[in-house]
Automatic annotation (TrEMBL):
Alphabetical list of Pfam families matching this protein: Leu_Phe_trans (PF03588)
Matches recorded under Gene3D superfamilies: Leucyl/phenylalanyl-tRNA-protein transferase, C-terminal domain, Leucyl/phenylalanyl-tRNA-protein transferase, N-terminal domain
A Gene Ontology term for the protein's cellular component: cytoplasm
Biological processes per GO annotation: protein catabolic process
InterPro entries assigned: Acyl_CoA_acyltransferase, Leu/Phe-tRNA_Trfase, Leu/Phe-tRNA_Trfase_C, Leu/Phe-tRNA_Trfase_N
Known catalytic reactions: L-phenylalanyl-tRNA(Phe) + an N-terminal L-alpha-aminoacyl-[protein] = an N-terminal L-phenylalanyl-L-alpha-aminoacyl-[protein] + tRNA(Phe); N-terminal L-lysyl-[protein] + L-leucyl-tRNA(Leu) = N-terminal L-leucyl-L-lysyl-[protein] + tRNA(Leu) + H(+); N-terminal L-arginyl-[protein] + L-leucyl-tRNA(Leu) = N-terminal L-leucyl-L-arginyl-[protein] + tRNA(Leu) + H(+)
Keywords: Acyltransferase, Cytoplasm, Transferase
Species of provenance: Cupriavidus cauae
Protein name as annotated: Leucyl/phenylalanyl-tRNA--protein transferase
Subcellular location: Cytoplasm
Statement: the UniProt record of this protein carries the keyword DNA repair: no
């Protein structure tokens, strides 16, 4: 049985989430409210919302938790060649927070295998837009010849980044944005990006599962550190990836 949260109720402990043998492993609580305050409290405790239109807000804390060390992002030889081209050609740009809500809507419109509809509801767009207005949510966008062709968005607290969703309308466009994000975060001492749930795609990018207890312990330290300011960078943050892991060739 999961907890129902009224607007001023705290979250239950994350170890109260449904276990691996349940129909919804990691489900912790449900509520009607999705305020910026509730979101920030959730992220600080290793909890995230995920639900469909017409459902109450469902709050999750999965175990294990999928995470990515920014320096462990797997940059294949083909992607490294693409990054070199992005750096070399003026047609390509990396923009940060150019239009946060448009990135969210693009993520919502992207078809995904095995998924009908989207969890990025108008309510989600409004709530995360409010976090963006506070400087706590950001988009990283890949542009080609004046068109946004890929990107991602997520929440930034202290030295912790919580990845939410990505989209691509051109080959590798979302991976270019992810590489730029990882380069920027690594330069600011961020050692963990939250990827929430374990998937083969995330594993192929270098993400790995860790116990929830380890994840929550990391949050206590990482979210207590100062916010990264300013959130401003361009495609030159990709230079590191074009030189890294030469031994992998």
């Amino acid at each position: 049985m999961i907890a129902w949260l009224d607007p001023h109720d705290p979250f239950p402990p994350v170890d109260a989430a449904l276990g691996p043998d349940s129909e919804a492993p990691g489900l912790l609580a449900a509520s009607r409210d999705l305020t910026p305050q509730r979101l920030l409290l959730a992220y600080r405790h290793g909890i995230f919302p995920w639900y469909a239109q017409g459902q109450p807000v469902l709050w999750w804390s999965t175990d294990p938790r999928m995470v990515l060390d920014p320096t462990a992002l797997r940059v294949s030889l083909s992607l490294r060649k693409t990054l070199k081209r992005v750096l070399r050609e003026d047609d390509w740009q990396i923009r940060v927070d150019d239009d946060f809500e448009s990135v969210m809507r693009a993520c919502a419109e992207t078809p995904r295998a095995g998924q009908h509809g989207t969890w990025i509801t108008p309510e989600i767009v409004e709530a995360y837009g409010a976090l963006h207005a506070r400087g706590m949510a950001h988009s990283v966008e890949t542009w080609y010849r004046g068109e946004r062709v890929g990107g991602l968005y997520g929440v930034a607290l202290g030295r912790m980044f919580y990845g939410e969703s990505m989209f691509a309308r051109r080959t590798d466009a979302s991976k270019i944005a992810l590489a730029a994000l990882c380069g920027f975060l690594a330069g600011h001492g961020v050692t963990m990006i939250d990827c929430q749930q374990e998937t083969e795609h995330l594993a192929s990018l270098g993400a790995r599962p860790i116990p929830r207890s380890e994840f929550v312990a990391h949050l206590r330290t990482a979210t207590a550190q100062p916010q990264i300011v300013p959130w401003r960078f361009d495609k030159t943050v990709l230079e590191w990836w074009t030189r890294a892991r030469q031994a992998e060739r």
